Amino acid sequence: MTKCLIVGGGFAGLSAACFLADKGIKVHLLEASPKLGGRAYSFSYKNQIDSDGFKSENVDNGQHILMGCYKNTLEFLRLIGAENNVLFQENLKIKFIKNSGTEHNLNASKLFYPVNLLLGILNYTAVSFKERLSIIKLFVKLIFINPDDYNNITVDQWLNIEKQSDGIIKSLWDIIIVGTLNTTAQKASAGMFIKILKEIFFTGNKSSVVVLPKVSLSEMYCENSKSFIERNGGKVTTSEKVNELVIENGKVIKVRTAKDSYSDFDFVILAVPYHSFEKIINISDLEFKQKLEIEYSPILTAHLWLDGNPFKEKFYGLIDSKVHWLFNHGKYVTIVTSAADEIINLKDDELIKIICSELEKYFPIFYQNVVKEYLILKEKRATFVPTVELIKLRNKLKFSYKNIFVAGDWSNTGLPSTIEGAVLSGRIAADSVISNIR
Ligand SMILES: Cc1cc2nc3c(=O)[nH]c(=O)nc-3n(C[C@H](O)[C@H](O)[C@H](O)COP(=O)(O)OP(=O)(O)OC[C@H]3O[C@@H](n4cnc5c(N)ncnc54)[C@H](O)[C@@H]3O)c2cc1C
Predict the structure, then answer these.
(1) d(CA 76, ligand 1 centre) in Å
(2) In the chain, what are the domain boundaries?
(3) Could you read off the pLDDT of 310-341 as tens digits, one per residue?
(4) Closest residue to atom 6 of ligand 1, CA basis
(5) Do residues 8 and 31 lie in contact, with contact meaning Cβ atoms separated by under 8 Å?
(6) What are phi and psi of 419, to 5 degrees?
(7) Sheet containing strand 210-213, strands side by side
């Protein structure tokens, strides 16, 4: 029986392990931390204000959203029996708010696709009618362009070439860029952004819908992944960090961890972030010797427990604000600031003031004295920044070991730093193992 050791228990490692276990490969997954999930996990938080006294509830390290175009992720969730842990919108529907409190809907109607999307843009009142026509013109153009032709310029440069006004950029493009790439138009590769736009808007009606976890992230996929692996004869070990790979004649023969060493395997998949990868493997041993200079982008999350919840929608987008999204979980709300470089190093009491003051400006129904308790979470290396330089270099990534494959959202998937990128990377690594058995 073929055996595969998988290092890293985030979306990439778990999906690689599950896809392989499904094909009859005996997998053993090693995860350094005591929990599975990597950058997408939940933990038990002892909420102090619950009327029953102290009560724990599972909260996420940061709100994660999926989209209908996350085909590999949705297939992975189906494989592990977790497809009912997410909620699909029927059609794209986002309520955007301006700081005057005015609401602007971006809704794809029930009409046939893609006319429904075009009508959605035509009715998007956050910009003038003339600006809406200019967006539609660019959308139509998008159908015919090749993303790779734009790999040498930034999104900012591309939007300038396409004569998108400041109003359109602020009220539409900036929100999509920060939401999908967790960075700014000045830094992101236009090629990557165009690719994502085409995936979301031009691969079917369901691709543009927002898909939200119905349960905490660990319940959404970590628990199901672990039991799927174990049911299929595999093993998951947490709290075991891999320190070194012993390589002879281009083959990994031993994996050394802080506690043990393993040599009973045919293949190894390294599914760790790049900063860990560099520590485990000697870059100069690789066919592709160049070190990747990865810039990371932070995400700031604030969970707020309120005295009465005034919010009606499942989520809102805030136009031109220091905070970008509000997600409504009923018992509490989650405020997300993507690409949060400017505020990530502030203290919690300073951050909560900024967040509350933004919410008061955007939602006349919100008063800061309704906040009974808050929890601020900072993920400084939430995602990598898909700069022009990085994306060009990543396209050339190649690894030359005979029995080792690389996964992780940073690897060469063509996608940004997302769940879908991570799951696709796991799938590619699993397929490489399978094609090397034959
Ligand atoms: C706050 C936040 C919000 C986000 N929101 C979204 C979103 O809405 N939508 C979206 O698509 N994406 C989102 N992302 C990005 C998404 O979470 C990541 O792209 C994805 O989870 C990366 O998965 P991965 O498996 O590649 O890496 P990771 O999740 O980082 O997993 C790597 C694993 O390897 C382990 N590891 C590292 N070194 C070793 C070692 N030496 N030995 C053993 N194990 C090791 C780590 O402990 C970790 O568990 C968000 C990220 C953050 C932080």
Answers:
(1) 16
(2) 3-40+215-294+387-437, 42-87+296-384, 90-208
(3) 999 999 999 999 999 999 999 899 999 999 99
(4) 64
(5) yes
(6) -55, -45
(7) 66-67, 210-213, 86-88
